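Q: What does the predicted 3D structure of CDP-diacylglycerol--serine O-phosphatidyltransferase look like?
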Amino acid sequence: MSAAESETAGTERLSPADFLTLGNALCGIAALRSIMVQGSFSGTESRLFAGAVLLMLIGAVCDLFDGRMARRWRSTPYGPHLDNLADVITFGLVPAAMTLAWVGFDDDWAMPAMVAAAGFFLAIVVRLARYVTAAPEPGIFRGMPAPLCAFTVVSIIVLEPPVPMALAAIACVALLAVSRLPFPKPSSRSLAGIMVVWAACGALSIVAWAAGLPGGTTGMRFTAASELFAACLIPLIMLKLRHTMRDQFAPHATRRRTLPRPRRVSVRRPGAQRRVRIRR
């Protein structure tokens, strides 16, 4: 086998990071199955909703560490494409299905919910396609990341606002996904650790809520409210930091110096009939 053939054969094998990405996709499919067997999130069926959210959290952890694993060990050329396909399922299709199941299919708001869910799903697809093709920027994402969009939609559903307000908020999340606002990348260990701790706290509150433990509903709503507050606060902080850095490193404006205008003197040459102007 030639060197080119051996290299091609090597790229066809999945790396450990790719298997972690496929785990994210499997979590999304399992969460989607939990949502499809119910029409609302009331009563005992809230356990199915809690299971779907737990699977989304596991998928988010897989999505957080597959990139680190690929950078540390080995990556394949189609690793980013697998990551995008898995994110479309877990963070695009599952929240859209949650929206439809929460509103219901016999409600008067069923058609607006369909429009909001479809708009959110398409916004996630466009956002992920732009991420693959755009030039990477160090330290930031352009547009709200897909996992943050997904859990923001989940938080809106958990807080149970009026349906028109919830659909308008989901539409705003879709706009943030395709916007150019900067969002921080979880590239540092401290930020990744914060995200893992938040996922663990969210998982505990979901389990307590689904099991009917005392304070489970309060903890679930508090977790959802904190996530929604962070989703609204992060872009404002990033915009403030960007303007601060721009003002700090921008060159100071210098006052333009005005040179004096040269004086014109008219002299008459001897024997000449015309005037000659000499500039000094």
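A (community wiki): The structure tokens above were generated from the sequence. The domain at 14-249 is CATH 1.20.120 (Four Helix Bundle (Hemerythrin (Met), subunit A)). The two ends are 83 Å apart (CA to CA).
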